[in-house]
Every structure is written in structure tokens, then in C-alpha cells.
Design a protein that fits this description.
The structure holds two protein chains of two kinds. By secondary structure, chain A is mostly helical. The N and C termini of chain A lie far apart (about 65 Å). In chain A, about 75% of the residues lie in helices and about 0% in strands. Chain A is built from nine helices and no strands. Chain A has one domain: Fumarate reductase/succinate dehydrogenase, transmembrane subunit (3 helical TM bundles of succinate and fumarate reductases). Chain B folds into two domains: about 110 residues, Beta-grasp domain (Ubiquitin-like (UB roll)); about 130 residues, Alpha-helical ferredoxin (Fumarate Reductase Iron-sulfur Protein, Chain B, domain 2). In chain B, the strands form two sheets. In chain B, strands 2-1-5-3-4 form a five-stranded mixed sheet. A two-stranded antiparallel ribbon of chain B has the order 6-7. In chain B, helix 2 packs antiparallel against helix 7, helix 5 runs antiparallel to helix 7 and helix 5 packs across helix 9. The radius of gyration of chain B is 20 Å and the shape is elongated. Classes of the chains: A mainly alpha, B alpha+beta. The complex binds FE2/S2 (inorganic) cluster.
């Protein structure tokens, strides 16, 4: 009984990691996990518009999850690594599949977003590295560590404002978000095709969902640095 | 009309190959693209030059032998048209035309514009068939099949196996071809019995042949002379998922 189960799970692992279709499933599922994070992260960050108390409270609640937070982070990191690893692996295989290029090439349908997934993906990944160093580990700005609000909580609110008041930081952020959403404009609908979860009747709706979601995420994310730069969201009056 | 052709010339499988330029003069707009090449070849033979080799057979759009990439598009600029059915009236006097073979590691060039597509045959041999005995000419309604299933199977059965999907795909993926075969057979009761085994074997063979992985560009569907839909790929993705669980 257990040997049957083991051999079945080893065939599944083999199918997922070694076959073209299995690897597409991995790309789709890991992409979905990353997408859920991107949505959740935006909802979290938008709380900056609800004021210092709200977002600092939210940040503290997350921190207080303790080990659970690390479980979630571990899960997320694992899936993002799978997404990057598989993305690179598939790209290398795809390049190898056409050793001699065409001297004249024209595309009828393949969108630019679909043809540049690897590049937008790699740029986003490097930006995430910087973004973590900036706001999470605060290695680039150690002063962020000492920001504390009136209730003695880490002052995420002021940290975001101080961070985004730097025009270059904001600009880089906006570009990275733009690329992320461009990546998603192909990725979201692609996910359904890869998993075979679409139907010809549902495809146009799925395309629209992908596009709308990308636009919402783009606007939601960039509203933060833009509001800070425009002075709509300000540092607390009575000091930090 | 007069045209300038840039054609891929390659002596044999091991030759490096290069683009060469030829003039096509006095081309009649009613000629097919292949007839135009026939005229050019007459001229080349007259000059003692090795004629341009290209694949063709039926010249009526049903066999899947013709296979030219014309100005960057497999089977050329007309939708739902094989290159043998492409007429010169779609070109203008003075046009420059680039003619290249299907390019994929799994489709090595044999000579000039002819590539070896036996990888497709091996994929079919791996599982693209029905092994239950379907008897002699069957009674039309002996096995009831719904109209929508029959239509779906017919849509996918239109694939002529030319390989334009592979040629068009940025990744040289064969998933439209394989998806069409799997979707066709999975739609019919005769093919359902071995659906799981089939999808596994055909996908394994496809991977082994060195085709790339589909990243949903849908360029294949756009160039397919038989307009096979990428829903065949989605169907294959579903079928494979089922086979994994089994
Ligand atoms: S030669 Fe038969 S399809 Fe073109």
C-alpha cells in the first residue's frame, strides 16, 4: 500500500519537474502564490492612507505572528524561488530549441509582454532584492530601524514616507511596479491556459480579468509614492 | 511582376548554410508561391545553378508537406492558407521576399528549405492512435457521439501536421500539434480508453525530441493553415493533469 503511494508520489514529482507540462503547472501555481502575495501586500500598504496608527498597528500584528510569519515567508520564498528557477530553466530549454535564428522575423499574435516575460521577471526579482534591503532588512537605510511611534511600535508609516520622499527611490519603484504589472498582464491569463482551467467561452473574460487586475495593482501600488511625493501623505505633525 | 528573393541555401545537414539573393522575373500573379519558385528554379537550372529545394506534394493545401517561412511568417502572409495555396497576387512588383525553412532543433534542415519532420511521426507513434478494434466500416450511429463532441474532434482532426506551429513559436514548441492530436482523440469514445497512457507517452516523446515549452504566445494558432485553436493545448494540459493523478 505504502509503496504504491510512494511510487505514485514519485511519478507526480517526476511529472512536475521533468516534463514540459509539469513545469508549466509549476510556473502557473508558483505564479499564483506570488500574485496572491502581490495583492495582499498592496492591500496592506494602502493602509498608509488610513493613517499612522492603522498601518503601524497592521505591521505590528504581522510581526506578532512570530513563527507563523516565518512559515508564511518560507512558503512564499519557496514558491518564488520555484518560479524563478523554472522560468530560467524553461527559457534555456526554449533557446536551445531553436539554435539557428530566423534572419527575418515577424509576430502576428504573440504580445510583447509575453515575449519579454523572462526579462521583466528577472528585473522584478532584482528589484525585490533591493526593496527587501530597503524596507524589510533596512540595510540601505539603517536609520529606519530606530523609527518608533508614540505607542512605541516600529513606525512603518514614517519609514515609508521618508523612503519615498526620495524621488529616485520612488521612480525606481514605479518602474518596477510597471514591469511587474506588465508581466502580470500576460501571466494571469496564461496561468489558466497552463492549468487547462479555461474554456473558449471563458477566455475573453479571463483576459479581461488579467488586464484589469494588472491595472488595479499598478494604480494601487504607485498611488503610495505619488501621494507622498505630492505631499498628500505627510509625516506626523508632532514629530515621529 | 519582378521580385527579389532572399533564400536560405544549405547543401546538406552538415553545411552551415547562408541566405542567397535571386531575381524572380515575369512572375504571373495567378501563380502559387511554389509555382513562382518552379519558375525561378527553371532559370537557375538553365544557368547551371543547383535549384532551390523545397518540400511539397499535393499543392492543394491538404497534405502538410509545403513548409516555407515567408517574410518571417510560416506559410506567408495569408491567414489559414498553406504556402502551396498562397498566390502571388498577395505580393507587389518589386517586393523583397525572405524565404527560410522551419527552424527548430527538432526539425533539422536536410537541404535548403527542406527539414526533417520525422519527430512528428515519432510523437504519433508514441500514442497518437486508437488501438481498440473499431471494426469495418461502422454503422453511422452504432456508437452515439454528440454533435458537439464530433465537431470538436473534427476541428482538431483538421491538423495536417505541417509543423508551422513549431516554426512560428518563439520557443519552437510542438504543443499545438500534440494538443490537436490529444484533443481530437480524447473527444471520441474510441480514444478515451487509453487517454491517460496516450497523453503521457506523447508528451514524453515531444519533450525527448527537443521541442521547446509553450509559454502561451499563441503565435501557433495565428499561423496555422487549418486554424487549429490553442484550446487544444489547454485540453492537453487538462488531460495530462488527469493522467498525473491516476
Ligand atoms: S503541398 Fe500539400 S499542403 Fe501544401
Amino acid at each position: 500500500m505504502s509503496t504504491v503511494a510512494t511510487s505514485r508520489s514519485s511519478t507526480v514529482v517526476h511529472a512536475l519537474t521533468k516534463t514540459s507540462l509539469g513545469q508549466k503547472y509549476l510556473m502557473a501555481v508558483s505564479g499564483l502564490v506570488a500574485l496572491l502575495f502581490v495583492i495582499g501586500h498592496m492591500v496592506g500598504n494602502l493602509q498608509i492612507f488610513l493613517g499612522q496608527d492603522q498601518i503601524n498597528h497592521y505591521a505590528e500584528t504581522l510581526q506578532n505572528l512570530g513563527p507563523l510569519l516565518w512559515v508564511i515567508r518560507g512558503f512564499l520564498i519557496l514558491f518564488i524561488l520555484i518560479h524563478i528557477w523554472e522560468g530560467i530553466k524553461l527559457k534555456l530549454e526554449n533557446v536551445a530549441s531553436r539554435p539557428e535564428p530566423y534572419s527575418y522575423r515577424k509576430y502576428r499574435k504573440a504580445s510583447l509582454a509575453s515575449r519579454t516575460m523572462i526579462w521583466t521577471g528577472l528585473i522584478i526579482a532584482s528589484f525585490v532584492g533591493y526593496h527587501l534591503a530597503h524596507f524589510t532588512v533596512q540595510a540601505t537605510n539603517p536609520a529606519f530601524k530606530t523609527l518608533v511611534d508614540a505607542q512605541g511600535r516600529h513606525d512603518v508609516y514614517s519609514m515609508m514616507i521618508l523612503g519615498f520622499q526620495n524621488v529616485w527611490v520612488s521612480l525606481l519603484y514605479i518602474i518596477a511596479i510597471g514591469l511587474l504589472c506588465y508581466h502580470l498582464s500576460h501571466g494571469v491569463t496564461s496561468m489558466f491556459q497552463s492549468m487547462g482551467l479555461n474554456k473558449p467561452e471563458t477566455q475573453p473574460t479571463l483576459d479581461k480579468i488579467g488586464l484589469t487586475l494588472s491595472v488595479i495593482l499598478f494604480l494601487g501600488y504607485i498611488s503610495i509614492p505619488l501621494s507622498i511625493l505630492a505631499g498628500i501623505v505627510n509625516l506626523p505633525k508632532g514629530g515621529m | 511582376m519582378n521580385l527579389t528573393l532572399h533564400v536560405w541555401r544549405q547543401k546538406n545537414a552538415t553545411d552551415k548554410g547562408r541566405m542567397e539573393t535571386y531575381q524572380a522575373t515575369d512572375i504571373n500573379e495567378h501563380m502559387s508561391f511554389l509555382e513562382m519558385l518552379d519558375v525561378v528554379n527553371e532559370d537557375l537550372i538553365g544557368k547551371g545553378i543547383d535549384p532551390i529545394h523545397f518540400d511539397h506534394d499535393c499543392r492543394e493545401g491538404i497534405c502538410g508537406m509545403c513548409s516555407l517561412v515567408i517574410n518571417g511568417i510560416p506559410h506567408g502572409p495569408e491567414r489559414a492558407t498553406t504556402v502551396c495555396q498562397l498566390h502571388m497576387r498577395h505580393f507587389k512588383d518589386g517586393d523583397e521576399i525572405y524565404i527560410e525553412p522551419w527552424r527548430a532543433k527538432a526539425f533539422p534542415v536536410i537541404k535548403d528549405l527542406i527539414v526533417d519532420r520525422s519527430a512528428f511521426d515519432r510523437i504519433i507513434q508514441a500514442g497518437g492512435f486508437v488501438s481498440v478494434n473499431t471494426g469495418g466500416t461502422p454503422d453511422a450511429n452504432a456508437i452515439p457521439i454528440s454533435k458537439s463532441d464530433a465537431d470538436e474532434a473534427m476541428d482538431f482532426a483538421q491538423c495536417i501536421g505541417c509543423g508551422a506551429c513549431v516554426a512560428a513559436c518563439k520557443n519552437a514548441s510542438a504543443m499545438l500539434f500534440v494538443g490537436a492530436k490529444i484533443a481530437q482523440l480524447a473527444a471520441l469514445p474510441q480514444g478515451k480508453v487509453e487517454a491517460e497512457r496516450r497523453v503521457k507517452a506523447m508528451v514524453a516523446q515531444m519533450d525527448k525530441e527537443g521541442f521547446g515549452n509553450c509559454t502561451n504566445y499563441y503565435e501557433c494558432e495565428a499561423v496555422c493553415p487549418k486554424e487549429i485553436s490553442v484550446k487544444g493545448i489547454a485540453k492537453m494540459n487538462r488531460e495530462f493533469f488527469k493522467s498525473m493523478k491516476g
